[in-house]
Amino acid sequence: MKIAILSRNRNLYSTKRLYEAAKDRGHEAEIIDFLKCYMVIEQGNPEICVNGEVLIGFDAVIPRIGASRTFYGTAVVRQFEMMNVFCLNESQAIVRSRDKLRSMQLFTRSHLGIPTTAFASDPTDINHLVEEVGGAPLIIKLIQGTQGIGVVLAETKKAAKSVIEAFYGIQANMLIQEFVKEAKGADIRALVIGGKVIAAMKRQGPEGEFRSNIHRGGSATQIKLSAAERSTAVKAAKVLGLNVAGVDLLQSDKGPVIMEVNSSPGLEGIEKSTEIDVAGKIIEFIENNAHRKNLIKDRVKV
């Protein structure tokens, strides 16, 4: 097969691993900077070009779209879909996963556990918002944030009010969420491929840090999921329509709750902590499903 890996940086661990895994399994792989792509939208003849050359002959696409480039990146993925190329994660599913509010609404519709969450556009009733999520301490999270950026722990009601007012002042959309104290600065990343959890790690934030992101100094160890955690991760990916997803869970007193779902999960932390060839399993999924490109369609509808 001929596989396109859409990535802005060919030196990233995840990009390199996917390229190597594809080559090791006998496929032709090409890393393409999607921002350098341009699209020709013509009836019956959609095209994608780079440097004056038309991209043709691809059997599958692996989108590695950064959150800040979601609009253009998913437009490129959608164009490949128009060209009847199998996309590991479809454009609509990626867009859906990047909208934290929309994701939370879909999770609650499917009876999945989430931290109690509030969203509003009017700053006049902050006190009631804070009460609705259980009071301070609480989490204030920018809807478009990623990798722990734009996430604030407000330890007092006064601090929460100041941060919320500041975000309202710059017209930033935010979620106000319950702080799950019993998680103790740790979370679980479950890597789901094709409706199965194939690897899982527990990430622990450094002393004094409530965010557990590895690039912020957190550590990761392999973990065996409970049946409830495994079921929640698989269903979360399905609810968003993702074939491949990194599902972030918190262990709470009321069972697993979903923090967020990543449609372009990093591979370095989970491969190194679990010693599982995640990249190889992604390529294997493509091998088994690329021929079904005419059968796989987004069914979430929201």
Tell me what the structure shows.
The protein has a five-stranded antiparallel sheet, with helices on both faces. Strands 2-1-6-7 form a four-stranded parallel sheet, sandwiched between helices. It is an alpha+beta fold and 302 residues long. The chain has helices at residues 13-24, 70-82, 91-98, 100-109, 126-132, 157-169, 227-240, 268-274, 278-289; strands at 2-6, 28-32, 37-40, 47-50, 53-54, 60-63, 86-87, 117-118, 138-142, 151-154, 174-178, 186-193, 196-204, 219-222, 244-252, 255-262. It has three domains: 2-96, Rossmann fold (3-Layer(aba) Sandwich), CATH 3.40.50; 116-179, 2-Layer Sandwich (Dna Ligase, domain 1); 182-292, ATP-grasp fold, B domain (D-amino Acid Aminotransferase, Chain A, domain 1). The protein starts with a strand and ends in a 13-residue tail after the last helix. Helix content is 32%, strand content 26%. The model has no long low-confidence stretch (mean pLDDT 90).
